[in-house]
Amino acid sequence: MAVQLIRLQLLDGDPEGLHSAQVAGRTTILVGAPWHELKLLLARDEAERPAVYLLVGDPPVSAAPTMFDEAIYIGECDSLADRFAQK
Predict the structure, then answer these.
(1) pTM score > 0.90 for this model?
(2) Per-residue model confidence (pLDDT) at position 66
(3) SS3 33
(4) Strand ranges (E), the chain
């Protein structure tokens, strides 16, 4: 079993705020934020790069009833800052 170093950071010092993770030796950076911190996330350099993003929350009201409490939307874009500029 190979050992991997994963670096976790609380970017604003708050465990409920902006946070990132990076696996040593990889170029991938994971950045997460609650919806109300979106402006802070979009101000970061990482927001200008191509990205895969996940939106997690309640299912749309129009969706068929299911046994699940949350829905996940997965998207991709050339720039998070451009994709969410109007939000």
Answers:
(1) no
(2) 64
(3) coil
(4) 6-10, 19-23, 29-32, 51-57, 71-77
